[in-house]
Amino acid sequence: MKRNNTRPATFQKMRIVHSLPLRLLLCVSLLSGLLAAYAPQALAAPGAPDEISIVEPGWVISTATAAADPVGAHYNPIDGLLYYGRRPSSGGGGNLNRVNVDGTISSITAADRPSAVFVDPTDGDIFLSEDYGGGVYRTAYGTTTRTTWLSGLGSGDDDPVGMAVAPADYTGPILSAGQALLVDRGANSGGDYIWRWSPDTAEGEVLIYTDAQSVGPLGDPVDVAISSSAIYIVDPLGTADGTIFRLDDGPTLTPVTTQTPIADPRGITIDPLTGDLWVVDATPPRLLRVNPTTGAVSEMVTGFAGVLWAGVDTTPDGNHIFVTDWTGDMIYTFSRVPENQFHFDKSALAPRWSVTADPQSGVLEHSLSQDYFLSYYYGSPDANASPLSVTIDDELPTGMTLTGESHTPAMTFGQAGQTLTWQPEGQVARGQSGLISMAASYDNPVGGGVYTNTATLHAGPYQLEAQATTQIPVMAPLLTEPGSGELCPGDVNVSGVAQPNLDVLVFIDGVQVLQTQADAEGRFSIAYTYGGSATELLTVQACIPGGACSAPSSVVTLRPPLSFWCPQRSEWEGTPTVGPKAGQHLVFGFRNNSGEFASQNWRIPGVYGFWNTTLHLYGCNCPPESGTTGQPSSIWVIADNHRYDPTGAFPDYTFAITGGAHNVV
After folding, report:
1. What is the Cα 95 distance to its own chain's centre?
2. What are the distances in angstroms from CA 441 to CA 227, 305, 366, 474, 512?
């Protein structure tokens, strides 16, 4: 136990009075973007002493939380909050505290001069070490009580400080994944120790390394960090300057040779993106980056008032660093600035295939089109970022034609060949955004073909590229004939539209029976012989020759005829001379209320003035004349009780309907 209650002079807390007001560094709206990976926190806007200086580019202060006497603030990935100890600058007492979402502080448990805090990343349990009391205490996540976790850390002067756990992918020495280490600084007359312990099982700590006071390489180990393959310990008194040790098999301690001495290292964590060490140095108070392989040392942040032990931590993704300034009564969060502060994206909807009929000739025409979207946002973290002139270029692939575009805000648009250009009117300021929509058609799309559309944004120092790549899908063909309904036996044209030059497969009841090929315009036609005695399901598929096929077309149901004529090959035409449709040539087919061709219960729209019309009737299955085996010679139509006889011969009959035709048999 601690033999005296006197703190070494180098640990006396000095209060720094700032003559200048605190400076608001960032606004809340910016924080919501910068701390996306730091969810679910949405901390209040920071205020920070003017002395803080970020030296390494690519970082900003995202929060600065005022907290009395903070030590060892560590991030809890379970709730996204910070937990830290309050270690009074004089006397006993203290607490385990939490920084809430709104930046307020909650006291979790009482403590006696905490020396460090550690959070188990798997379940969020919080462990707090006390160097005066010589123990480690656990507070289960979500509770406000604590239990003694490690109490057998030796007799005499035991001073537990920093803790760390081996991650799930750990392959290094000494530990297994999930096992933890604790360093004991052995202040005053005690030895210096390294203990192995379990965050899941109380007590059971195992001493794996010891130095008698002032004998071995350890002088005052205060913090430990564990990567997937190595263990690092910081010791401010290991030599004339401090030392970073790597704990190797044996166990043995191997100094990490640094190109620049680090006088007083007090805390350590590891950059998960690079493997570099982040170290807080107390003389002067600053955050350093150390390459453990080359020994290169560089300043990241300077100007802290005074740091104590285990005063640095990070989020699992390495996008946020937390530094505890014990003397300055602050906990800082430093966040990476996105590499591209000007964001630019391009997206595309799926290609759209459409088939239309020419209003004059009735010839079917088809086209493939696609919609694209370009968006930008100027999201610089610098509140004083200068407005920028912006130009956006888009290169339409060969084989595509622009059919329309729209944009917001106001822009100047131009086109030169396949190059499209937009330039917002005036400069784009921080926080402003824009959206461009454009539609394009494919000139001769081939199923399976790949088109890459590339756009480039130019804005001051930024030149950002965005792409949208589309592979033309093989579309299901459109069957135009026959239609669903009754059909007389015999040959019928299976016709429709597919993508140009694709193979077209014809299926009856799911079994392929025919194959043809669409022409350069996408049209296809092939004769199929319908037996007329049973219902058949007709579908077609389009295929790249030797390659992928489309989904089946819509099903056409072929039904045996119920009368002596074929509704699919018959029609009624005429031109009204009076009424709203006067002068329009009208042609009607024979369909029932379900939309299928039918020889019974069919309906055609009533049209005023539809008199003196022509009915074309295609006969089939008619019985022969009595006493003969030949085709019938007598067939007639009764319309509004008036009998009409045809011209023509079986099977094509033409009836001149000179009167009305409300009821027809």
Report:
1. 41
2. 54, 64, 11, 16, 33
CA distance 213 to 186: 7
Task: Characterize 477-503 residue by residue with b for buried, 16 or more Cβ atoms within 10 angstroms of its Cβ, and e for exposed.
Answer: bbbbebbbbbbbeeebebbbbbbbbbb
DSSP 305: S
Contacts (Cβ under 8 Å, ≥6 apart) of 405: 413, 420, 436, 437, 438, 439
- Confirm if 292 and 229 have CB atoms less than 8 A apart: no
Residues in a beta bridge with 413: 422
What total number of domains does the chain contain? Answer: 4
Match 């991030």 to its residue by tokens: 75
* pLDDT tens per residue, range 285-318: 999 999 999 999 999 999 999 999 999 999 999 9
Cβ atoms of 166 and 177 within 8 Å: the answer is yes
| Whether 569 and 514 share a structural domain | no
Please indicate whether residue 219 or residue 188 has the higher confidence score (pLDDT): 219
Residues 536 and 592 in one domain: no
Task: Please answer whether residues 46 and 60 qualify as being in contact, where contact means their C-beta atoms are separated by less than 8 angstroms.
Answer: no
More confident residue, 40 or 579: 579
How sure is the predictor about 390, in pLDDT bands with cuts at 50, 70 and 90? very high
Nearest-angstrom CA–CA distance, 546 and 570: 39
Q: 64-68, 561-565, 567-571, 631-635 — which is least confidently predicted?
A: 631-635
Q: Which of 363, 587, 572 is nearest to 480 (CA)?
A: 363
Closest CA to 279 of 293, 294, 264: 264
CA distance linking residue 376 with residue 392, whole number of Å? 10
Signed CA dihedral, 158, 160, 165, 166: sign only: negative
User: Do 534 and 571 fall within a single domain?
Assistant: no
389: left (phi over 0), alpha (psi -120 to 50) or beta: beta
Tokens standing for residue 472: 């033309």
User: Could you tell me if residue 91 is inside a domain?
Assistant: no
| Rounded average pLDDT over 105-115 | 97
Structure tokens at 384: 């004083």
Whether residues 631 and 604 fall in one domain: yes
- Residue carrying structure tokens 């740091």: 307
pLDDT, tens only, 201-212: 999 999 999 987
